[in-house]
Hints:
- By secondary structure, the protein is an alpha+beta fold.
- The chain has 4 helices and 2 strands, in the order H-E-H-H-E-H.
- The model has no long low-confidence stretch (mean pLDDT 87).
Amino acid sequence: MSINDKTVNEAEYIAVIHALVKAKKLGITKAVLYSDSQLVVRQLTGKYKKKEPRLLELTRRVAEVSRGMDIRFKWVRREKNLAGLYLDRPNH
């Protein structure tokens, strides 16, 4: 799944999907995923409706990949997201 032609929100969903796939391959069945995308976290936790068809499809994919897993999604402020801060650095 390439993110080259995706929106920021689609890229956030794709990152969640990749993390879940990797967790499953490692045998992880219970985890908390932290994201600084408030929209994605609130959609995945049911607090926001999913209206955009492309995001709705990605939400279905998250549900499919996480089936059988106990996954919780938590929102963190951008300045607290160490991975995001690392990716924002030039020449990372």
